[in-house]
Structures are given as structure tokens and as C-alpha cells.
Amino acid sequence: MDEKLAGTAPSQSTEELVLGLWSDVERFFIGLLRPWSGYQIAIAIGLVIAAYLLNRFLNPRMHDWMRSKTHWPNSRLRLLVILRRRLRLVIFVALIWPTVWIMREVTWPSRSYMLGILAQLALAWLIIAILTRVISNTFLRQVVRYCGWIWVTLSILNLTEDTRLLLDSAGINLGDTHLSLWLLLQAVASLTILFTLARFLSRTSTDRIRSNKEISPSMQVLMVKFLQVLLYGAAVFIGLQAVGFDLTGLAFLSGAIGVGLGFGLQKVVSNLVSGIIILMDKSIKPGDVISLGSTFGWIEALGARYVSVVTRDGKEFLIPNEDLITGQVVNWSHSNDYVRLDIEFGTAYGDDPHQVRTIAIEAALSVDRVLSFKPPVCHIVGFGDSSVDYVLRFWIRDPTGGLTNIRGNVFLALWDAFQENGISIPFPQREVTLLPGSQVQTKPE
Length: 445
Fold this sequence. Notes:
Blueprint: H1 2-8, H2 14-31, H3 35-67, H4 74-85, H5 87-106, H6 113-131, H7 138-156, H8 160-169, E1 171-174, E2 177-180, H9 181-211, H10 217-242, H11 251-264, H12 266-281, E3 289-292, E4 295-302, E5 306-311, E6 316-320, H13 321-326, E7 330-331, E8 339-347, H14 353-365, E9 377-383, E10 388-396, H15 404-421
Antiparallel strand pairs: 1-2, 3-4, 3-7, 4-5, 5-6, 8-10, 9-10
Helix pairs in contact: 2-8, 3-4, 3-5, 3-6, 5-6, 6-7, 9-10, 10-12, 14-15
């Protein structure tokens, strides 16, 4: 490793590098004192003023013109918005490049050297500003944009090698690894690019997987999670290897950290493993209606650590995966969507039970969500103290629509049907008989 570093970087001290950079800066400012350098500065200032004035004139008109193009594709409109926000820089680039070309034709190339550098910088900055708009994360977009501007500026000014040597000289040696600012910047840049690429591939693959109707929902979640772990893990490994970071030295450290994490993160690991088991055995999948204790709702999403369950009242419960593996879970739609519901009621002894059963079945069928091809049934289940007790059983196939509301609708249909046919619903009553010679004591007012 030391030989490799010795072959790539000359043996210069930090002081010598700083002095070399300072001499370059000094020569640059001395060059500004030449007559044609002043002319080029004046021309550049004039172009900046012209770009500012043209932007003040064209920007509102371009905005009004874009508002009339609402029928255009979103991608084209988005590009126009990006260009309008940087219209001043676009105009400056459009003005300075013809100026450079004309001056190179009519005079010596050295007399347009500074304008050529400004033209290259402006064009490079504009391209980077447009390309970085594809990054959705604001912080990451700003980091990539400013790093790109710094890199192209150093490249155009031919300062990349001096800067690299200066950053490489500021570092420490850790065994066979030379840890410097240059290595750190390389690692950050490589990881940023690779993570952005991994995120793009992950999103694209996720959209394709979820749009494939032949793959079950649980298998889709499993494939997406596995793909994310694979892509981001490969990004870290490739990024560190690309900058020459020796990963073998981390073997012992990673083993020690793994043992510590094994004791301290038992629940987290248990939930992760439970989540993989749930996805593989397909016992629970997105859209299923489940009951766990007092929680009843449908599964909104399967996560690596928890399952999101949304109830009818809009509450979202994040249930750890371990609870779904070790606890008793009622999956109302595991093998199919059919759910049977029971409601109990009673009628008076004077009512014909045959007629009551027929009326109850017809009342249940009159409710929209009750299935007719799995007909309801009504049975006598007992003779109570004040009523004949019945149970009405019916089927639905949309438990996500709620259970309490369908029970309420069936009860309401029973009430209306019993009122129309003279069926009475008794309630417990007690008779008190006073024996001869008994006295009733009342409280004084």
C-alpha cells in the first residue's frame, strides 16, 4: 500500500504544495493587470448585465407562455420550469460563447483566454444544475451539485492534481491504510453515486414487481426487501473497494460488533426474522383483515420490523412481527374473502317460529352486502325465560368494509320486518305478588 501511494503521489511536503498553489494564484492576479485582461473583465461584466436585463424582460413572458401549455407532457413542462429558474445563466451562456468564438476569429486566442474559461465554467455549472434535478432528495441534490461545481472548476483551472496532492498529504496512517482527506472525499463521492444508482434501481424494480399481478403481495414485499438489501449492501462494498479501502481489517471488529448487537438487539433481530418468515409462509399479506387481541383492521403494509394495521376508525397500529408469529392471530381473509357472521335475537312465545325463521332469512337477504349464493340460515338455539332464542347466520365477502355496520344493518332489517309482520320482541319482565297480610313500606318524602 505504501509503494502504491509512493508511485502515485510525489514526495512533496504540505508546505511546498501550499506554496505552489499560492504562486499559481499570484500569477493569476498578476495576469489581471495586463490590458487585454481588463478588456475581457469589462466584456464579461457587460455580458452579465445584459443577461440580467434580458432575464427581467423574458422571464415573466416565458412564465405566461408556459401557463398556456398545460396540455404538454409533464416531463417537458418540468424541463421548462428548470430552464426558467436558471434563465439568467442560460442567457449568459448563450451570449458568452458567440463572443468567445468571434474574438478567437478576429484577434489572438490569448486575448479571449479568460472569457473562454468563464464560458466553460458557466456551461458546466448550467449542465450540473440541470442534471442534479433528477435527485429527489434536497440535501443530497445540493451536496452533489456543489461538489460537481467545485470539481469542474478545478478541472477547468487545471488545479485538480495540486488539490489532490494537498488533500492526500493531510492524513494519517492506520496500519497499511493511509487515511487522508482525499480518500475520504473519494469514499463520499463514490458512495453518493452508488447509493443514488442503487436507489434508482430499487425504485424502478419495485414498480415493476408491484405491477406484476402474477406475483402474490407477500412475495412482492419479500422480493422488494431482498433487492433493497442486496443493492445497498453492494453499493457500500463496491464504494469502499473502489477507493482502495482494505475491508479485511474490519473482520475482527465486525465480529465483535456483531456479538454485541446480538445481545443488545435481540428484539430487533427477532422482528426481522419474523418478518421474513411471515413473507415466506404467506400467512399474512397486504390487504388481509386480521384480529389481534382488541385490534381489528386490514393490513396496509408489511415492514421489516412491523406490520401496519389500519382500523375502521382510521387508527394505524404498528404491530411488531414477533407478535404475529408467537401470538394468536385471526386472519379473516387468509384462504378466501368469505366471512360468516352470527347475530342473536329472541321473539315472543306467541309468535310462530317457522314464520320467524322465514322472515329473518328474507330480512338478511335484503341487505346489500349479504351474499345470496351462500344463503343465510336461522336456527332456534333455546327457550329462554321470556323469549324463544334464535341465531341468524349470514355470509359476506368484504370484511374490509366493516363488521359492526353490517350487523347493525341486518338488525335494522329484522326490526322493520318484524314490525311489518306483527312479530314482537319481548323483554324481561317480573311480576310481584303481595300475599294477604303483607305490608309495603315506603320511604317518607
